[in-house]
Each structure stands twice: as structure tokens, then as C-alpha cells.
Amino acid sequence: MAGRGVAERRVLKVGAGGEARRARDRLAVEEPLELRVAGRPVGVTMRTPGDDFELAIGYCISERLVARPDDVEAVRFCAPEGQAQEFNVLTVDLRPGVPVPDPSLDRLAVTSSSCGVCGKASIDAVTVDCPTLAGDGLAVAAEVLTAIPGRVREAQRVFEQTGGLHAAAICGPDGQVRCVREDIGRHNAVDKVIGWAATEHRLPLHGMVLFVSGRCSFEVVQKAAVAGVPVIAAVSAPSSLAVELADRLGMTLVGFLRGDTMNVYTHPHRITLPTPSATASDSAATPTLAPGPASAAGPAQGPGPAAAPGTAATPASAPTPG
Q: What is this structure's pTM?
């Protein structure tokens, strides 16, 4: 059965031999979500419904609309006067005494599902509040990182039905998945896991790994830095600005995490390589760092073959995922 995150549509399926037939297909839902803080609109984002409360809290934290998670008193759906409740407008109520976000932070233009940082005044304004993570002593074995994509893939419930969503996951130094969230926008998926961490009182996420199932943009690094994550691992390529920011903030950025290979772009001291085995068979199974970027970025949503699933409980305050 399709939930709010999944829609169905009749399609014409054409096979390899040209044979065509009518069938039903499932699509990842994309809908606007208007966010309001203390009653005033701060932006509209295109997202996949599900875990919307976490998305709102994570957005407020990663965009520095609030200084700390405790500044948020409540999150609730609201509907414009005289209109039916469609669960596409969220209000974040602040605790008494917490200042309302500065008017210069207004983001009233629509943010697409593929873009989050677009329209901001300057890169320097985005990075000004990001703390350095150079002192985080996390060390992660290469073979631990290579096991994460399969674990996350197994936990992607909506992707399993539609093949059309990004995933973000918070993982421990042992590679165990603490939380997985899906969305049609990669930056929304990251905000959802940050919101989960906030509601679970786990911020800052020192000593943890953020995994993203697609490419790694500047904004993903910025959001991870605000949340205190020292290591980011992505299935596809990072952008030049993402690498530059990660290097500046002391974060380890891994890209092209596929199979037993990866590229470590910044601060590689956190990735522990196994001692080469004396036997040829063991040596062949040793994860290696790829000498250069992969020839193709591949599908953004497909993190790899399934392995043991990661699990995470949805906070009681958040809506049931679609």
C-alpha cells in the first residue's frame, strides 16, 4: 500500500523487444512544504512527505535559524485560514525569550528538491558559523565504511518501491546505522537526520559518520559541520566547493564509496587501512582507496547491494513516514 511518500500512476511499459503493456507504477511524491518560524514564513522547500517535523527542526538548526535544539518549543502543522489541512505548512514555535530569526534570513523563493544553497547571499555568509572539527579523534576502518551503503540500502523503504529517493544516514564508528531518512532532495534527507539527532538529544554528532546516497554538495558539508559530524561518506562525487569547505573545517570527506573502493579527498588520517594480508586471497579482498574518480557518478539513489539492515526508531513527535 502506498503512503504519503508514494504515489501511483498508470504507465505504458515498453520492453526490450518493443512489446508494450499498461501497468501501474509507483512514484516518489514531491510536494511543497512551507516552513514558518514564530509565525513568519522562512522558506518553501520541495520535499517527500514523511518525517516532516524532523525536517523542520533539522532545517532550523542547520540553517542557524535557532542557536540550539532547545530553542524549539513545538512543531505543528497548520493550514491557511479557510483552507483544508493538507499537511504542507509547518510552524516552528520558539521558547519564550528566543529571538525570532533575522529578516535578512528570509528565503521566500521556492527551494527545489535538487538545490538548497542556491540564492544565499554569499559562501562566506553560509560558513561563518561552522565550527572546526579538526580535533575530532574519530577513526574508521575502511572495511567499516564499505559496508555502510548496503546497510542503508536495506533500510530505504520508499526507494524500494519507487527507485527515486536519496538517503542520508547517521552511522557509528562501527558502521552500525543509527538513523536513515529518505527524501527526493538530498539536503532534505540530511536535515531529517539532523532533526532526528536533535529530538533524540544526540547533537553534536561528534565521532559519527554521515552517509549520503548521492553526490556531496557544499550544502551537505555545511549542514554536517553545523551538526558536528567529522566524517562524510558519499556514493558519488563531491563538488569542488564541498571539498574546499571540508578541508577548511577539518572534516574527512569520502566520495565514490562503492564496493571495496573509495576516494578520500580531505583529512585521510581518520580512515584506517588494514594491514596487507600475507595470502593472495585475503589481499584480494582488502578494501582499497581508488586512485582517481570513478568514470561515472551512477544513480544518486543507489548506494549498493543490500547487506544487514540498519534500524532506527522514529521519534514519537515526528509524523509517520510515508
A: 0.80
